[in-house]
Amino acid sequence: MTTERLSPPMRAGERETLRSFLDFHRATLAMKTEGLSDEDLRRQSSPPSTLSLLGLVRHLAEVERTWFRRVINGEDIPLVWSAEGDFQAAYDASKAEGAEAFDAWQTEVAHARRIERAAASLDVTGYQPRWGEHVSLRLVMLHLIHEYARHNGHADFLREAIDGTVGA
User: Between helices 98-118 and 14-33, what is the axis angle to 10°?
Assistant: First the structure.
């Protein structure tokens, strides 16, 4: 399967621009993980770090779930990989299966897209309990763009160490 990654528009409204950049970064993560075995996806970076591509996919499933479903949509649901709310649990992909992680990630991305499209505006807010603040959908989308961009940089190095693939 080849991931299609569309470039964000050069001129568009704020919401379309944010949506496009977020989808661009989601597609970048998919490209960075494409064609790898579960063993490759679980391969850890430089010791003592346990960071892996599969751990990143699991983490970003939690990020999507938390910010869109729990914060913006106000859903009272646990994290995917930790009923206790431990965000670090997702990074431990040592025994994880790629299919499960990608299914969870794609499911959360689909929920996030639905929630974003249903929101009346970027000014819609939700409560972020970790910050003790109400936050706008605008901030959430910007935060996720930042989160993906940062982790896609990690994914660049992880993928290159696995099979020499560079760029995206």
Answer: 170
- Between the alpha carbon of residue 109 and those of residues 10, 44, 58, 155, 168, the distances in Å are 24, 25, 12, 18, 20
Q: Residues 152-164: pLDDT tens digits?
A: 999 999 999 999 9
Query: Which of 165, 29, 40, 44 is CA-nearest to residue 106?
Result: 29
pLDDT interval class at 2 (50, 70, 90):
low
Mean pLDDT over 71-92 rounds to 91
Spatial CA neighbour of 137 closest among 11, 22, 10: 22
148 touches 20 (CB < 8 A): no
- How far is the CA of 123 from the CAs of 11, 32, 36, 41, 66, in angstroms? 21, 32, 39, 37, 18
Cα dihedral sign, 165-37-153-126: positive
Q: Give me the mean pLDDT over the 69-86 stretch.
A: 93
**SS3 label, residue 136:** strand
The amino acid at 115: I
Name the residue with higher pLDDT: 29 or 166: 29
